Amino acid sequence: MNNTIQNRKVRVLIVDDSNMFRATVIKGLESTPNVVIAGEAADAFEARDKINELKPDVLVMDVVMPKMDGLTFLKQLMEQYPLPCIIMSGTASEASALEAGAAGFIKKPRNPSEYKTFSTILGTKIILAAGKPVQKAKASGTAAKTAGVDGVVPVQGAGAKIGKVMPNIPSKEDIAGLPLKTREGYIVALGASTGGTDALECIIKSFPDTMPPVLVVQHMPPVFTKMYSERLDRCCAVHVKEAQDGDRLTEGVCLIAAGGYHMELKKDVRGYFVKCYQGEKVSGHCPSVDVMFTSVAEVAGKKAIGALMTGMGADGAKGLKKMHDNGAYTIGQDKDSCVVYGMPMEAFKLGACSEQQPLANIGKALCRHLTEGWK
């Protein structure tokens, strides 16, 4: 290892959209000799500014973030401002991180018992990364070499200002391409459990404000569902809120089932609304994905679109099968991108999935079937 690096403090910038996880990483690195926290950022835009301002030695970055995913940002960064980066993720692969130009990769811990080991390994990787020459991302084509990522022209030279990073989300036109009357009556239903909070964020943040109504069941205790929905509402184009009994569903609205309450889709002469109620656990949970999916299958039929993401157990599998059998378009998250490949695996076994997709593709797949006039 380079003695200069070994004998000086390595300044690290932590980039993750979860305040809680950033705090966990920072606390875990406190005991790592020669590592100091230079700063923190919640997304690529903020990271860009902090890199220019703080000049960190090493970047430690998540993949699933608002506005632009970590791997896309890293590829642009390597062209414009080469900087050692450790990718931490529960969804991306080590191969994809290294291909993007990362100096190292580490899996995010799945439970608190893994935090200590995670911090020790991360600290070691940071020290090693600081002493390595930076490797640029592998070029994906001539356009990438000349125009940068997403059409952003690279600014040459180490230490130069980083060009503006454009959000990698669908435009309103992606959904607005269909006449409103064609989209009328559509419902999008999403279910998840273990690892689902990050997975759902990745998907919901890709929705434009012209999205048909969205219903979500994420296994989460009371109180936390309200905090989660409020956090998503601050960074999503759609309006996200914790569902209340009788809430009406309109374009650009996303309702998240409250902890301890089942949520069902209903319809009257005025349109769609939700029924929320306390009840016995179904498929081991309240709220239950099966309860929500089953009601969507019965009420919306072929105008429903459903996706079942990462989670332990089988909740949602039977409900997604009913949606599929009633003519809905259904997606199951694939094994490689799941934190726990339980719920979508059971759905796949039942033949409930029109297709399986990696997490990064699910939002686009949902939008695609709306814009192509899925009927």
Can you walk through the features of this model?
The chain is an alpha/beta fold. It is built from 15 helices and 14 strands. The protein has a seven-stranded parallel β-sheet, sandwiched between helices. A five-stranded parallel β-sheet has the order 2-1-3-4-5, sandwiched between helices. The chain is elongated, with a radius of gyration of 22 Å. The protein starts with a helix and ends with a helix. 48% of the residues are buried.
List its salient traits.
seven-stranded parallel beta sheet; disordered N terminus; elongated; 375 residues; 15 helices; 14 strands; alpha/beta
Question: Tally of extended strands?
Answer: 14
Number of helices: 15
Query: Residue share in helices?
Result: 25-40%
How are strands sequenced across the largest beta sheet?
8-9-7-6-12-13-14
Kindly report how far apart the N and C termini lie: 60 Å
Low-confidence stretches: 1-6, 138-181
Report the sheet-strand fraction.
15-25%
Structural class: alpha/beta
Helices and strands, in order, run as HEHEHEHEHEHHHHEHEHEEEEHEHEHEH
Largest sheet: 7 strands, parallel
The shape, in one word, is: elongated
Average pLDDT score: 81
Query: What integer value in Å does the Rg equal?
Result: 22 Å
Q: For this entry, what is the oligomeric state of its chains?
A: single chain
